Amino acid sequence: MGPEEERERRRAETAPARVAPRPRFQRARAALERFAPVVWLRSISEIDHTTGLVQLPSLGWRFSEPHPELREMFTSVVRDAPQNIAWAFEERKNSVIVPARLIAEGKPGGEDFGDLRRAISKSDQEFCVAASEDIELIIQAIASQPALPTASRLYVTQLVKHSTEELVCVVESLTGEAQVGMTFRAVGATGVEVRLTALQWYPPRPETRRRAPLAKVTLVGAEAGRIGLKELLVSTPSP
């Protein structure tokens, strides 16, 4: 072995080992779990190892409970982060980020884009490569978003008084720092805004031992009467 080969051998032995990048699935989970626990996640792998083709990517997930306070953030990321094609963010039972083409060409109301995705992957590799570059930018953008303020969350379990502008209810699983004066938004009820005007805790009782203590809450605000049983009310601090 000559001097040059010997130097190359020594450099190879002393060079730091290269760490393989984490799979897209793991990077997506890490990005999403910065905001809330993820109980289900689906991320299409980059390559179909049977055909060797780049697959059309998408990202689907479900948090342990609804988080409407994150909706605006995901919408803006999907709008601003990609550089190649148009994307869409939708919330149903699961949240999904998919190329807008899947929605435009898919079956009305359908959530399973598998057949269409496979067809595009076979017929339009240029589009798939562009989408693969974009999904990486989207995951990076989610991972770089600042953590949002902790939201107060109330689950309505009993309606005591129900009118168009005032609601007295019993709630459970109150999380976050709920304070009188906070404004709440109801999941699935666009435009409903209620203000927390009173908060009274019930002492723990045998029938509530397995749950968080119940609280009686008075809410006043425009269209408060639209709040119903099992509603989730979410509030984030005002900027």
List the helices and strands and how they pair.
Elements: H1 3-14, H2 24-32, E1 38-43, E2 59-63, H3 71-80, E3 87-91, E4 95-99, H4 100-105, H5 114-123, H6 125-144, E5 152-162, E6 166-175, E7 183-186, E8 193-201, E9 215-220, E10 232-235
Antiparallel strand pairs: 1-2, 2-4, 3-4, 5-6, 5-10, 6-9, 7-8, 7-10, 8-9
Helix pairs in contact: 2-6
Written account of the structure:
This protein is an alpha+beta fold. The mean pLDDT is 83. A hairpin with a 3-residue loop joins strand 5 and strand 6 (166-175). It starts with a helix and ends with a strand. The strands form 2 sheets. Strands 5-6-9-8-7-10 form a 6-stranded antiparallel beta barrel. The chain has a 4-stranded antiparallel sheet with strand order 1-2-4-3. 23% of the residues are buried. It is built from 6 helices and 10 strands.
